[in-house]
Write a structure and sequence with these properties.
The structure is a single chain. The protein has about 325 residues and is of the alpha/beta class. It folds into 2 domains: about 1-185, Rossmann fold (3-Layer(aba) Sandwich); about 195-325, Rossmann fold, CATH 3.40.50.920. The chain contains 12 helices and 14 strands. It has helices at about 5-20, 45-50, 60-70, 90-95, 100-105, 135-140, 150-165, 215-225, 245-255, 270-280, 305-310, 310-325, and strands at about 1-5, 25-30, 55, 75-80, 115-120, 145, 170-175, 180-185, 195-200, 205-210, 230-235, 240, 255-265, 290-295. The strands form 4 sheets. The chain has a 5-stranded mixed β-sheet with strand order 9-11-10-13-14, sandwiched between helices. The chain has a 4-stranded mixed β-sheet with strand order 5-7-6-12. A 3-stranded parallel β-sheet has the order 3-2-4, with helices on both faces. α1 (about 5-20) runs parallel beside α7 and α9 packs across α10 (about 270-280). The longest helix has 15 residues, at about 5-20. The termini are far apart. The mean pLDDT is about 95. Pfam families: Transket_pyr, Transketolase_C. It comes from Trichococcus pasteurii. This is Transketolase-like pyrimidine-binding domain-containing protein.
Amino acid sequence: MAQLTMIQAITDALAIELANDPNVLIFGEDVGKNGGVFRATQGLQEKFGEDRVFDTPLAESGIGGLAFGLALEGFRPVPEIQFFGFVFEVMDTVVAQAARTRYRMAGTRNLPIVFRSPFGGGVHTPELHSDNLEGLMAQSPGLKVVIPSNPYDAKGLLISAIRDNDPVVFLEHMKLYRSFREEVPEEAYTVPIGKAAITKEGSDVSVITYGAMVREAVKAAETLEKEGISVEVIDLRTVAPLDVETIIASVQKTGRVVVVQEAQRQAGVGAMVMSEISERAVLSLEAPIGRVAAPDTVFPFGQAENIWLPNATDIENKVRETYHF
């Protein structure tokens, strides 16, 4: 196995699927010769040619429309939205077209598009680059929304997404791109979409989260372990559809829950998780469900980002509050 960063694992997955299926196409702003703004597609145009990996104009609406048309004609497009805050320029294609096509055509047509995009805070990007907009996507029936938290899952989930016959929004947290390495198999493998992972076993409190907050939750769990509080960390991996079965099993095991998201508190994925727990497992709870999230404000400029973003300390405090209720 190779020791890869998350960005390297993503590049590896893309290369494997380009080689595996001639109908896979990669395109977006600067993804060709430059290899993308984060170099996720570095070297792919040179290896697979300009017909398979190519640049587009700076127009997300055009990127989306091209992907939609290609998918209807039997291709498997993997367009890159350079930063997910730019998704508003292509919302019609993603939500009003791609998400509805199977229903609209009575299941007679597939629409295998993977909308890849970086997102997330902690790297001091300009406005609209870091925004956590996964809640908008998760609210749209017909879309699968995948958010890996580590290199192994990133490769396996991306391969699964490209092979899926329905549209997938694949979000890659920028802070995780090069922050650590882990062992990743060199061959092709898949990680199932719609299945959460138990990142750390525990018995006292369940912390349910995704993306960059998984690493913050693990840090918090390690600190709390020294205080005698055993924390189970659940990585959702897919925020639509939710793996309700794994969530409820963990809640029934521990009896206490803290839900964590980097996104603003209002109308987020965390609220959906909390409602599912309240509806299905309220009698298993020994304390109110705790929540850690960003404030309900516009994502701040870089100078205030570290104050605004949730972190391990916030998670520790909420777990203590829930545990000692």
